[in-house]
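Slide 14.
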Amino acid sequence: MPSTRDIRRRIKSVKNTAQITKAMQLVAAAKMKKAQDQAANGRAYAELMNKILVALKESAEEGVHPYFSEGKGSKTLVLVMATDKGLCGALNTNLLKKLINTRIEGEVEFVTIGRKASQGLSRLRKTLIADFPVKDPAKFAEVRVVGKFIQEKFLSGEYKTVLVAFNNFINTVTQVPSIEQILPVNPVTLGGKRGFDETPGEINAAELPQYTFEPGASVVFETVLPQYVNGTLYQMLLEARASEHSSRMVAMKNATDNAKQMLKDLSLEYNKLRQAAITNELLEITTAKMALE
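Slide 15: predicted structure.
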């Protein structure tokens, strides 16, 4: 049975831990608001650009641009976006589980953003060909380097498709691990509230305006499509960062609440032990007095 001294030490330790988790919760909450605003602001543009290009893909002539057709290779390249730091709940674990449980045909090679992604894939003995450090908050220039690397790999003909695994931000308490195909151009789902059985509908090219390309479709696509890839990757990273800070804020809040509950339990146990010790002392005094009479 622990002594009162041991319980006092535990109370002091839990109090210190609660102060740390509370501070981390406040920091994560401040970062979360900025990250959520960034993700929400860019989502409409990214989704509209994706919708237009998917529709143009259906109506474009065959061979107008390599991004509209699968690569000649048999391998698949997967970009995994995870966090650099931990203490964000099961965010990274759920993403890796989603990646493992998703059936991807053929040989798969990986590119990562975030230390937790590279560490997790190394433990799983996966083939990792590149790891890109991207600071927080994310800057478009850093993501453009990743986009250029992925596009060069796809255009080399070594890979059939390019996928991106990231955490899709829904709201503060809900982040969904997602795997989306970015090359060749494919419908991409980014964040937002969705029903449990809601799936992205098919895009009908006839419903969109008819576009005129000057000087020509191939020239326009040569400029727009690389920008689309970079922009979509940037938006996916913003979704992942909003998910990270939201998950960390919730995890630290839960840790702080658990610490407070533990302090209550320890204080109750400490008071019970003190009461028992005082009662024993009173009994000893009373017994000694009665023996002397």
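Speaker note: The mean pLDDT is 88.
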